Amino acid sequence: QVQLVESGGGLVQAGGSLRLSCEASRSSFSFNGMGWYRQAPGKQRELVAAISSGGSTNYLDSVKGRFTISRDNAKRTVYLQMNSLKPEDTAVYYCNANRLRLGVREDYWGQGTQVTVSS
Predict the structure, then answer these.
(1) Does residue 79 contact residue 69 with C-beta atoms inside 8 Å?
(2) Residue 28: its pLDDT value, please?
(3) Residue 112 confidence (pLDDT)
(4) Which is more confident, 1 or 111?
(5) Which end of the chain is less enclosed by CB atoms within 10 A, N or C?
(6) What's the half-sphere exposure (Cβ side, CA atoms, 13 Å) at 43?
(7) Rounded CA gap, 23 and 111, in Å?
(8) Can you tell me the distance from the alpha carbon of 9 to that of 12, in angstroms, rounded to the nearest whole number?
(9) Predicted pLDDT of residue 56
């Protein structure tokens, strides 16, 4: 069983920064990809940023240039550096790790961490 433990959420003023961390209980190198999703009240969960095992990244358009995803395979950890935060970034952020097993994608999720950006 894989556990993903998140940290780093909190309350910040608009324009501020936060750094989220997510540590996997098993080596992240075995995952095809890791990423961060978010879900605001009344909205669907959306992909914010993802990073492949090879280091390729992709971002939600609204966070490009403000957020940076990175991973440290030795520490089994993925990070999300969030700068120039806006009130619309307020949501619960979830860490995701995924892999293909016998051709089927398996997803693993963290418990979520609240990010609140005040105006």
Answers:
(1) yes
(2) 54
(3) 96
(4) 111
(5) N
(6) 14
(7) 12
(8) 9
(9) 95
Which long-range contacts (C-beta less than 8 Å, at least 24 apart) are formed by 55-58? Answer: none
Tokens, residue 65: 């240039």
Phi, psi angles (nearest 5°) of residue 92: -90, 130
22, 88 in Cβ contact below 8 A? no
Q: What is the C-alpha to C-alpha distance for residues 36 and 44, in angstroms, rounded to an integer?
A: 14
User: Of 83 and 27, which is predicted with more confidence?
Assistant: 83
**Predicted pLDDT at 27:** 63
Query: Which residues are CB-neighbours of 101 under 8 A, at least 6 positions away?
Result: none
**Closest to 60 in 3D by CA, of 43, 87, 36:** 36
- 29 contacts 96 by C-beta, under 8 angstroms: no
The tokens for 29 are: 């190198």
The pLDDT value recorded for residue 26 is 72
Distance of CA 59 to the CA centre of its chain: 11
